[in-house]
Amino acid sequence: MADAGDFIKKMREAQGIRPHRLAAGLCSRSSLKEIEENREECGLPLFRILLQRLGKCPDKLEYILSWKEYREERLRAQIAVSIFRGRAEWSERAVERYEKEAGEKGAVHRMYACRLRALAASRLRGDAAEAEEWLERALDTTFPCWRRADWTEYLISTAELENVLALVRMRRLQKKPADELLEQCGVYIEHRITDAEEHAKIYAKYAWLAAEKEADKGRTARAAGLCACAIEELRRNNIEYFMRPLLRTLLECFSEAHGTKIRAAEAAAGALTKERCRAYLEALEHLHRQFGKAWEPQSCLLWNCCRKAYYLESELFLAERLAGGMTQEETAEGIYRNAREIRKIERAKSSPAGIRFRQLLGKFGLSRGRRSGFVITNSFEVLELRQEIQGMVGRRRYGEIRQRLPELEQQLDMTVPENLRALKMLRNVIAREDGTRTLEELLSESRELLRQTYRVLPEEMEEMRQLRKAVRPGRGRPRKGMGVQEYGYRPPFQNETYLLNSIAILLKRLGRAEEAERLYGWLLGEFERSRVRPEYHYLAYTLLLGNQAALRCSAADGIRAVRYHLGCGKLGALANDYLTIACTLLDDGANRERCRRMIRECCCLFELSHNDTKWRITEEFYKKEFEGGFFF
Question: How far apart are the C-alpha atoms of 426 and 25, rounded to whole Å?
Answer without folding.
Answer: 42
